[in-house]
Automatic annotation (TrEMBL):
It comes from Rhodovulum iodosum. SMART domains: LytTR (SM00850). This is NO-binding membrane sensor protein with MHYT domain. Residues 269-375 form the HTH LytTR-type domain. Keywords: Membrane, Transmembrane, Transmembrane helix. Pfam families: LytTR (PF04397), MHYT (PF03707). The chain crosses the membrane at residues 16-38, 50-72, 78-102, 114-135, 141-162, 174-195, 215-233.
């Protein structure tokens, strides 16, 4: 409870506060777990998983905020208008989705990670103040320091959560980021609330809603729990696969047999599937793409997860015809079907690979690649 002159007194129902934080944690885990391994799935599945994760993360942000608001007990009857309340949850989902898109479509650089954390943090604080604008029965009085404090904390903790979750895509990192993200929502909420006071609204109170605040809080928490639980169950096989740290469950055709191994003189590429390591003749790999500390290999049958880093793959396969075209790509020059020059850089094109259309060639490597291709 806190009191300032001429302001309303309020107290919290701490049981609802605790429940809101638990739901926030569960939603954070759901969203971050569903995004693990997206680089190795089809584009349609990737878009679906990101949409589900955005709903889980954004919904978790909003649920914590809204239930914590419903946990406040004023001396006057307080309700929430529908339009700002709905707008706040949509903002949280939209910005959470944008942060995930930044991390899963394009190179995962430090700048993109920082930008994703910035977007995620802004989603928390913008959602908070948008939702607070919907309060009815009293009027919020804001203090400028609260905007700076809540916004700064939201951005810093959003960046920390993204960096933890995506530095290594391990189970430990996912759990660590879950704790950071789940707590960040509560920390930002109560920081903002510390710098917010409430005055009684002028005029007669509006009609009471059908549900009281406590009942509405239970309905919201139940809905968030059901949504997160359903999303987790939808990804049960993905979550339960005994993968190495950061390893996505990759392959477009999981039961399609790979070609028989080549003679021992040809280098072989290790790949992992459901906790078992197999070996693939390097000559059947068209390209290799960096995925954090690991790599994705493209074959005619689909994409497979390789435990090598891109640097180790380059060292081991350099004499087997593989060439580093970009900081994130190696190509098997024997399988390059065409080369396209684009101003200062270029593209390697491939035929017969449904999941590999083209590979970028950086400006500094164009000349060496052209020489390797005999151009």
């Amino acid at each position: 409870m806190r009191r300032r002159a001429n302001m309303l007194i309020y107290v919290y129902d701490y049981r609802l506060i605790l429940a809101s934080i638990v739901i926030s944690m569960m939603a954070a885990f759901t969203g971050l777990a569903l995004t693990r391994g997206l680089s190795g799935v089809s584009d349609g599945v990737r878009h679906l998983r990101i949409a589900m994760a955005a709903i889980a993360l954004g919904g978790g942000i909003w649920t914590m905020h809204f239930v914590a608001m419903l946990a406040m007990r004023f001396d006057v009857a307080v309700y929430y208008r529908a339009l700002p309340t709905v707008a706040s949850v949509l903002i949280a989902i939209l910005l959470a989705g944008l942060a995930l898109i930044l991390m899963h479509f394009g190179p995962r650089t430090r700048l993109r990670m920082a930008l994703a954390g910035l977007v995620l943090g802004l989603g928390i604080v913008i959602m908070h103040y948008t939702g607070l604008a919907g309060i009815e029965g009293c009027r919020a009085v804001y203090h400028p320091a609260g905007f700076a404090a809540a916004g700064g904390l939201a951005v810093l903790m959003g960046m920390l959560a993204i960096r933890t979750a995506y530095g290594r895509r391990s189970a430990a990192n996912i759990l660590g980021a879950t704790a950071i993200f789940g707590l960040s929502v509560a920390i930002v909420h109560f920081t903002a609330m510390y710098w917010t006071d409430f005055m009684a609204a002028a005029g007669a109170p509006g009609p009471s809603p059908a549900l009281g605040n406590a009942q509405l809080a239970l309905v919201v928490m139940l809905a968030a729990f059901v949504i997160s639980g359903a999303f987790l169950l939808s990804g049960a096989s993905f979550l339960s696969a005994p993968q190495p740290a950061g390893a996505p469950a990759l392959t477009e055709a999981p039961h399609a047999p790979l070609p028989p191994p080549a003679p021992e003189t040809e280098p072989r590429l290790p790949y992992e599937r459901e906790g078992v390591t197999y070996f693939l003749p390097a000559g059947q790999v068209a390209a290799i793409r960096a995925e954090g500390h690991y790599t994705i290999a493209y074959t005619p049958e689909g994409r497979v997860f390789c435990p090598w880093s891109i640097s180790e793959a380059e060292r081991r396969l350099g004499e087997a015809g593989f060439f580093r075209t970009h900081r994130s790509y190696l190509v098997n020059t024997a399988q390059v079907s065409a080369f396209e020059r684009r101003k200062d850089n270029g593209l390697c094109l491939f035929d017969g690979h449904a999941h590999l259309d083209k590979v970028p060639v950086s400006r500094a490597r164009v000349a060496a690649l052209r020489d390797r291709l005999g151009l």
